[in-house]
Specification:
By secondary structure, this protein is an alpha/beta fold. It is 30% helix and 24% strand.
Length: 187
Amino acid sequence: MITAYTDGGARGNPGPAGYGVHILDETGATLAELVGPLGHATNNVAEYSGLIAALQWAVDHGHDRLRVKMDSELVIKQMRGEYKVKHAQMQVLHAEARALIARLGRVTFEHVRREQNKVADGLSNRAMDIVEGKPIAEAVAPSPVRPAAPAPEEPLAPRTIHIPRPPKPSQARQPASSMPRFDFDIE
């Protein structure tokens, strides 16, 4: 089972937003790092976009079992069905994530503390920097699980960073003044 650490954020909420995803194999070796600048969006849109990117990556690369670890308790509880998704834009993203999950054999969700999600957090900050037009920092926080060093005769594989853009929801955008600052669905 592969593991995807996902994170998303928005500076200003809403504001410059992006997500980051760090995908590891069973041994803890990095399979992919995804950086997704989203433009102007909310934190919840960024969190869902990171989840969708991880799910899509797993589908595209033929994986059927995925463990998702993220620090957004709200998204996890909505994906588990513990909280309802009331906001129309979140319903679209939630449905997209559910459709991707249906294409995988097994997906589990685990809430982790922010300290355990540093690589994905660093990648999401890189995405927000891209949106803000800042120079891209080369350094990324160290992985919470370091892969074993390859044998000397094996060449090192290059790291790639993908910058996927999630599809735009079909819902018309509401004016910023009518959008809630925080979106909690606790019942």
